[in-house]
Each structure stands twice: as structure tokens, then as C-alpha cells.
Specification:
Layout (H helix, E strand, L loop, with lengths): L1 E2 L5 E2 L9 E5 L8 E6 L3 E7 L7 H13 L4 E6 L6 H7 L10 E3 L8 H8 L3 E5 L6 H8 L3 H12 L12 E2 L5 E4 L21 H4 L19 H7 L5 H12 L4
Parallel strand pairs: 5-6, 5-8, 6-7, 8-10
Antiparallel strand pairs: 1-2, 3-4, 9-10
Helix pairs in contact: 1-8, 4-5
Length: about 250
């Protein structure tokens, strides 16, 4: 962009995107691709260890969305002070072995805040998570009034039946940007074919080629490598249940 003297500017070159977070319009009138964030470096999923209880099936849905769109994902387990570090690590223990980093935080006790800063520094990050997990407090602890600013935009964009959801990048003083993604769950998985879903679960993906049938659903088929791994305890039952819920329907 070349700035002009009157404060406006002229776009001179459009650089290629290296990544994008896309929402597809599921209405039958035709496909419509809405770019939620361009050149996003990571999705940061913020969940509380308690109050509210962590909804890990919702977290799994976020991770599938990140996998589908090729965007790295980081998990923040907040409010560690409510349960203690040992219990917090137990709650989220299934994710680090799958390649998803988990940062344990407590604003009240000042735990993990430096790790969060390093995670966000110099990157474009999309923040996702259910309400009440302490995201605003966490952002305020990282940078004064940042969480308040993010929340005000999110609340303003959600008012009214026909309000367009506003996406705004907030500059980090340490370098980088964050954007709130309150509508990430609305991405859903409608544009994902059931037979491709196993490719977005790392622990299933690495075993699919070993299944006896190429169209294996990993439910009742003989010679299923996924079921065999589940029996041996190599796949966490909660993750397998998330796969079943997403493939065959059900609530998070």
C-alpha cells in the first residue's frame, strides 16, 4: 500500500496468501467462501480447567478445523488455580502426544503468562474458545486493556439479527496480532465429507492405510487398524468418541 498525503492509500501489489481460515456458506443457493482471517499463523484454543468444565469435544472440533485448513493449533488450559497443576495436566494430557502444545495458565497466580506471550509474539493468531473461560482476563494480563478491546468488538458485532460479524486484528506491543474467533464453531464440518474426517485426527490418520478396507468407517469392520489401536490403548477413547460424534452426528 502506498500512503497518500490526504491519509488514504493506494493498493499497488497484492501478495499471495500463505494460509487462510475459510467459512463456507452452507445455504443451498450456492457456495460462498468467507475469509475469516488471511495469513493466519495459528489457532489458539482457550479452555478453562474448571468453571466452566472443559468441553473437550468442542476442542476436538476446533482441532479438526485447524487440521483441515492446515493451520497449526495451540491449546491454552486456563484457570489452573481452580484445580491444581497436576489435575490440569491430567485433563489435557491426551493432546501433547498428538503434536498439540498445551500452555497451562492462571491469571490469578501469574502462571504461564510468559509462555503465552512467546506463543503470540510476532504471529497472527486467531483465538477461539467457549464463553467464560477467562480469555479477556488472560489477554488483559498479556497487554493492558487488550482483552477489553477484543470483547467490545466481539459483543458489538454480535448484536442484531442481520449484523455482519466483524473481524478485527489487534496489534500486540511485543509484535504480532490477535483476532477473536467467536464464530469459529459456526464453521462446523458441513463441508467435510464423512469419509475424509479420519484424516484430520492425527492418531487415526497414521493408521488408515493399514485398514483392510479402503472405505473403512472404523466402527465394525474386520481388519480395522484404528479399532485394533483403540483396543491396545494407543488411541484415547475420548478422541475416538469425538470422531464418532463428528462423523455420525451428536453434540459436542
Amino acid at each position: 500500500i502506498r500512503p497518500l498525503s490526504d491519509g488514504t492509500g493506494v493498493i499497488e501489489v497484492i501478495e499471495p496468501r500463505h494460509s487462510e481460515l475459510v467459512r463456507m456458506d452452507p445455504r443451498p443457493r450456492g457456495e460462498y467462501r468467507q475469509i475469516l482471517l488471511a495469513n493466519i499463523d495459528q489457532i489458539v484454543a482457550v479452555f478453562a480447567c474448571a468453571s466452566p468444565e472443559p468441553r473437550l469435544r468442542m476442542l476436538d472440533r476446533f482441532l479438526v478445523i485447524a487440521e483441515k485448513q492446515g493451520i497449526p493449533a495451540v491449546i491454552i488450559a486456563n484457570k489452573v488455580d481452580l484445580v491444581g497443576m497436576e489435575r490440569a495436566r491430567e485433563l489435557f494430557s491426551l493432546y501433547p502426544p498428538l503434536g498439540y502444545p498445551v500452555i497451562y495458565t492462571s491469571v490469578r497466580q501469574g502462571i504461564g503468562l510468559d509462555e503465552v506471550r512467546e506463543c503470540l509474539r510476532g504471529k497472527i493468531s486467531g483465538l477461539a474458545g467457549p464463553s467464560g473461560v477467562g480469555k479477556s482476563s488472560l489477554l488483559n494480563a498479556i497487554q493492558p486493556n487488550l482483552g477489553l478491546a477484543v470483547r467490545e468488538v466481539s459483543e458489538a458485532s454480535g448484536k442484531g439479527r442481520h449484523t455482519t460479524v466483524v473481524r478485527q486484528l489487534f496489534r500486540l506491543e511485543m509484535g504480532g496480532y490477535v483476532a477473536d474467533l467467536p464464530g469459529l464453531r459456526a464453521l462446523a464440518l458441513w463441508d467435510t465429507q464423512p469419509e475424509e474426517l479420519d484424516g484430520y485426527f492425527p492418531e487415526l490418520r497414521e493408521r488408515v492405510a493399514q485398514c483392510q478396507f479402503s472405505d473403512c468407517t472404523h466402527t465394525t469392520e474386520p481388519g480395522c487398524a484404528v479399532l485394533a489401536a483403540l483396543e491396545r490403548g494407543e488411541i484415547h477413547p475420548a478422541r475416538y468418541e469425538s470422531y464418532l460424534r463428528m462423523r455420525f452426528g451428536g453434540e459436542e
